[in-house]
Design a protein that fits this description.
Lyase, Ornithine Decarboxylase, Chain A, domain 1; alpha/beta
Length: 470
């Protein structure tokens, strides 16, 4: 039976029961009558622990920048790339990693890709030229997106990038350029209502057309699936291998398949996520706010582990090896896992009551446009960290933005901060490099966009920092 709230609206398994009495957590151990959310502490790498423990680094950056900023650690991006490459090596599969650039614009990420022998997945001339500027070779680019502009197709063909073709008309425009263009045909997954990809009839038409095109080199097929289940990816990958074998009978080299992105990220521990999803209550949220769904912030097989599961399904790795087919992947969020944080300065606070219990409302010097989940009608759930660090009594706290919009809240959930935050303190939202930064930012209120600050290891266990060049 579908659970509904007091207004009759459906409530998903991870969303809250309503205030009037569906599932409630009681006191959650905070002594505030259940108005404080259960903690959702993020997994934290050594570099993040060191940054938070530094007595001056974050404060100095905040002083120099004069507003909110995004912190990037490209060495972690490099480590994530190697994780996927090692998964390919263990499986004995010829694989190639393309970073889904739309997940983060930082130049230091594209540079890490170039340094680690990874490519970049781009969908605009701006993204293509930005990747080239950081040392990614044209032949290491995958160009995706629907009905690409003529300028993008021309640049891609000139630089020998692989172009994922989304329609027969686009294939014909590529052929008209007169270059020896490298293409994949993007397949519409079965039973999918997506606007991307080609139907079975369109794929057959494209195959026939490509056979007669001397300026097109058909290198294989691609697809993209939503969600984080490895099984349908493995099954559709096997289907693309069969398509490659058929294309070879028509004279095409067809030696590559791309299974896109969608590799999960594990933000918070399993127990914390379970506690949240089992007991979440609207009492935990400012004004009784309710969200219908959340990103799955715990993933049991994230990133490279998910790739390993895909390759191990029904002998897919052996199938790829036996037929001489390269597997390409296009992770975005997963290559940015634990590679960045977003930092806001507290500008002021006030106290309010909920169900007779006090809680704090902070205003910070930024906007929820820098935490993109809010603008997808959801909440970014990993707990922010209060800096300078302190120990104290859990203080239920929500976080609002420095704009004139009632809805502009960075955290509707009453987070158990370790004491009341003071003006000038910093809130560090963890693991925001994947899609949270910059994808929805704007200069609303004529506020400047938060800059990205790249951290680099320095002698003596120190960090050096610089403004990112993007």
């Amino acid at each position: 039976m579908t659970e509904v709230d007091a207004a009759g609206a459906p409530v998903n398994s991870g969303a809250a029961a309503d205030e009037a009495g569906h599932r409630m957590s009681g006191g959650t151990g905070t002594g505030t009558g259940g108005i404080t959310a259960t903690p959702l502490p993020a997994h934290r790498d050594e570099w993040e622990q060191r940054v938070l423990a530094e007595p001056n680094l974050l404060g100095d950056i905040a002083f120099a920048v004069g507003g909110p900023f995004h912190l990037m650690y490209p060495a972690r991006v490099a480590r994530n790339i190697r994780g996927f490459q090692e998964a390919f090596t263990r499986a004995g599969v010829d694989g190639f990693v393309y970073f889904g650039k739309k997940a983060n614009k930082a130049a230091c990420v594209a540079r890490a890709c170039a340094e680690q022998g990874a490519g970049v997945d781009v969908a605009s001339t701006g993204e293509l030229t930005a990747a080239l500027a950081q040392g990614v070779r044209g032949s290491e680019l995958m160009v995706t997106g629907p009905e690409k502009s003529d300028d993008l197709l021309w640049l891609a063909a000139r630089h020998r990038a692989v172009i994922a073709v989304d329609s027969v008309g686009e294939l014909e425009r590529i052929a008209a350029l007169g270059f020896s263009a490298r293409v994949l045909l993007r397949v519409l997954p079965p039973a999918s209502a997506s606007r991307f990809g080609m139907t079975e009839a369109e794929i057959e038409h494209a195959l026939t057309a490509a056979t007669a095109m001397t300026s097109v080199r058909l290198e294989g097929f691609s697809f993209h699936l939503s969600g984080y289940d490895p099984v349908p990816r493995a099954e559709l990958a096997a289907d693309l291998v069969r398509r490659c074998l058929h294309a070879r009978t028509l004279g095409h080299p067809a030696s590559t398949i791309s299974i896109g992105g969608g590799f999960g990220v594990d933000y918070v521990p399993a127990r914390a996520w379970s506690d949240f999803t089992e007991d979440a209550s609207r009492r935990w949220f400012h004004t009784g706010k309710k969200f219908d769904s959340y990103y799955p912030y715990h993933c049991p097989e994230p990133g490279p582990a998910m790739l390993t599961a895909i390759l191990g399904r029904d002998g897919l790795a052996e199938h790829l090896r036996g037929n001489g087919i390269r597997l390409a992947i296009e992770p975005g969020r997963a290559l940015l896992d634990r590679a960045g944080s977003t930092v806001f300065r507290v500008q002021g606070s006030k106290t309010r009551l909920a169900h007779g219990h006090p809680y704090r409302i902070l205003t910070v010097d930024g906007s929820s446009l820098s935490l993109s989940e809010q603008w997808f009608d959801s909440e970014y759930l990993p707990d922010p960290v209060l800096w300078p660090p302190r120990e104290g009594t859990a203080t239920p706290t929500v976080v609002g933005a420095a704009t004139c919009l009632e809805s502009d809240m960075l955290s509707w959930r009453r987070i158990p901060l370790p004491g009341p935050a003071d003006t000038g303190d910093l809130l560090v939202y963890p693991n925001t490099a994947g899609y949270q930064m910059d994808s929805n930012e704007s200069t609303f209120h004529e506020l400047p966009l938060p800059p990205k600050v790249a951290l680099h290891d320095a002698p003596g266990g120190r960090y050096r920092w610089t403004l990112d060049a993007h």
